[in-house]
Write a structure and sequence with these properties.
By secondary structure, this protein is α/β, with parallel strands linked by helices. It has a single domain (4-179, 238-259, 268-273), classed as Protocatechuate 4,5-dioxygenase, Chain B. Helices cover 31% and strands 17% of the residues. Helix 2 (39-50) crosses helix 5 and helix 6 packs parallel to helix 10 (239-246). The relative contact order is 0.22. Keywords: Dioxygenase, Metal-binding, Oxidoreductase, Zinc. This is 4,5-DOPA dioxygenase extradiol. Belongs to the DODA-type extradiol aromatic ring-opening dioxygenase family. Residues 38-259 form the Extradiol ring-cleavage dioxygenase class III enzyme subunit B domain.
Length: 278
Amino acid sequence: MNTLSEFRSFTGRLEDTDVLMPALFVGHGSPMNGIEDNAFSRRWAEKGKEIPTPKAVLCVSAHWFTRGTRITAMEAPPTIHDFYGFPPALSAVEYPAPGDPALAGETAGLLSSAGPLLDHDWGLDHGTWTITRHMYPDANIPVLQLSIDHTQTPGRHYELGRELASLRRKGILIIGSGNMVHNLRMMNWHQPEGAYDWAATAQERFSTLIREGDAAALAHYERLGPEARLAIPTPEHYLPLLYVLGLRGSNEPVEFFNDRTVMGSVSMTSIQIGAAGA
């Protein structure tokens, strides 16, 4: 158990920069995107070149759903293969990016209201490495993960995102990794491209609210109609979006990319908060 005084001992170790790092929400979709050369993975690689090179990456992954908030704090986080039924080539992938225990401590200090724990047992799951291995293929930038506390409300996750905002000025790229529309039970394996009508309606509603900056409505997604409830049958893939929306400053631009839906019910729609090199 880490004490609040231990967290505070890290505060201020990272210096501010002249650049406000953008923040990303990335629709990660199938783990196969981690090894495939396709439109989605190519756009991730382009993003890695378009935005400033970060000092480190902090990823909120849909695939680390915990009781309480945890932050990876090891020197060398392992690559986690948290899936089954895929080709052996996917399970053979290793992404040996270093960790950053000092950044983990400083992040914990920013989130002290959540009573976070520094974690030495998890690593980088496919919600993280399938994206970062395209953005930063040399694995030479430290990567940390932040878990999603399933006991908290969506609004609380948005507030935790706001508490992390100062990291953007310190050169840290924060990524929320999930999918806005994510209903695996209703996937149409015979329709690799395109959305069900309800999925398209839900995605357009989410996108409009993001453009309008209405985070309160997005935090209460269950009130956005039956289409939204179909889009989010369980919250873990949606909640990373709220962290990223919490990072948005007043009047900051939002760019949409990979704005497509696959197999009827999985949206790859992604957003960038802030301008590259702002």
